[in-house]
Amino acid sequence: GYSVCEVHAGDDLRLFLNGADGVPLGGFDRVEAQLAAEGRRLAFAMNAGMYHPDRSPVGLYVEQGETLRSIVTSAGPGNFGLLPNGVFCIRDGAFAVIESRRYAEEEPACRFATQSGPMLVIGGALHPKFLAGSASLHYRNGVGVSADGGTAWFAISDRPVNFSGFARFFRDVLKALYFDGNISRLYAPELQRNDLGFPMGPMVGLVVPAD
């Protein structure tokens, strides 16, 4: 099974990386503490992209319209470099998953953006490198966006799955982007979820009033 959180265009969806002190937030509890000062809280959150040991993003990272890490368009080792990879973009009034090389060419205006890989579904088809019988099983999480850009679905598997199985779950959503595997975590009070684990890099979260 899968746990899924749905967000609509116009909702206060943000990416989180560093606190006011410049130190990576690393966990949902520190994000909650930061939002409490605004009188707000998280409705849900999850890790949102791969990161280096110092928790800095591996690829593109944009926060409040400022590019803090440049896009990476070359193939490379690991899941991130399994092209095509992509960018999850939060615009004013819409969401998008954009293939990384196209993003580099078009430089769309994103209020928040995070790059990860691989893409799960491309034009209605699964990523060509995925194998239906693969024995590489992990907890996995990712994001898919509706064709009109008005809805984003954030999903995390409730048991270890391979890439093919995870991508098939997104097939009807289309344009899905893989966030991560072993460190996949979800914070969703309404689902009674607060996954523990190692400190994280980029996180995505839906922000709502505290009361």
Describe this structure in words.
- The protein has helices spanning 28-36, 100-106, 163-169, and strands spanning 2-8, 13-16, 40-47, 61-63, 66-69, 86-91, 94-99, 112-116, 121-122, 125-126, 141-145, 151-157, 177-180, 186-188, 193-194, 203-209.
- A 5-stranded antiparallel sheet has the order 2-16-3-14-15, with helices on one face. Strands 5-4-8-6-7 form a 5-stranded antiparallel sheet. It has a 4-stranded antiparallel sheet with strand order 1-12-11-13, with no helix packed on it.
- With 211 residues, the chain is mainly β.
- The chain contains 3 helices and 16 strands.
- The protein is globular.
Report helical residue fraction.
10-25%
Amount of beta strand: 35-45%
Please trace the helix and strand order, writing H or E for each element.
Answer: EEHEEEEEHEEEEEHEEEE
The helix count comes to 3
Find the count of extended strands (DSSP E, 2+ residues). 16
Distance between the termini: 31 Å
Tell me about the biggest sheet? Answer: 5 strands, antiparallel
Q: What does the average pLDDT come to? A: 93
- Looking across the biggest beta sheet, what order are the strands in? 2-16-3-14-15
Shape: globular
Using only CA atoms, what is the Rg? 16 Å
Which segments are poorly predicted (pLDDT under 50) over 5 or more consecutive residues? Answer: none
